[in-house]
Amino acid sequence: MASSLPADAPRRLKELVPSQVAALLADDPRLIVPVGTCEQHGPHLPLGCDTFIVERLADDLSAEFGVLRAPTFEYGVNVDTERAFAGNGSLRKKTLHRALNDLLASWEASGVREFILLTAHEHDPHQEAMATVITAGARVRVVDIFNIDFADLLQGQTEPMHGDEVDTSIMLHLAPELVHMELAQDYMMSREELRRYRRGWLKVPKGSPGSIGRPTLATAEKGRALYDRIRGRISERVFLAPAPTS
Can you list the domains of the chain with their CATH numbers? Predict the structure, then answer.
């Protein structure tokens, strides 16, 4: 039955019957697990910004390489904020860790030998929750999709921030109908403040619109270039490597 699937379609686990899943895993025992967030990214972007990006990437990589793709886990460990933003939904680090432990254990028991966890959230506690997941023997690879040099593609930044030139450009490319550019506001941090922010030592400041960086410089064309680089680098570094055989 797996062979009846369109060659260029994502292999979405939730759309398949068990026999199709078993056949796909027999051919390639890897599983892509997109992990998103429900978190403010400024007044101009949807709360699911990180989720939309990793979902699209998971679909594209699944279709290209014929690898199974799990349903998206839509919640992560958010950065603390000095003021509340309506709709934010965050997990504690240990909650995300335990939930992924349970899910990966179930999938490993059915034949998965390598997990590829995709995230677009550069927050150390969030990534630590994923990186410390324990399996019986399967390999776990946590892929921070923004751990790439984008400096040559950006105008007002040298690296990804949050709800910024990078996020906003990619969303203008993938889902422009969800972006409200007229509401975008720039807010910059120093390199040291950004480092402390990513490690969870600094809250999103009260004076910030909820985003950090220069979203006003975002364009769809820039977003296409950023997304293509992300997809290309992850393809080379992760998916073109030989799949585990046992």
Answer: 2-239 (3.40.50.10310)
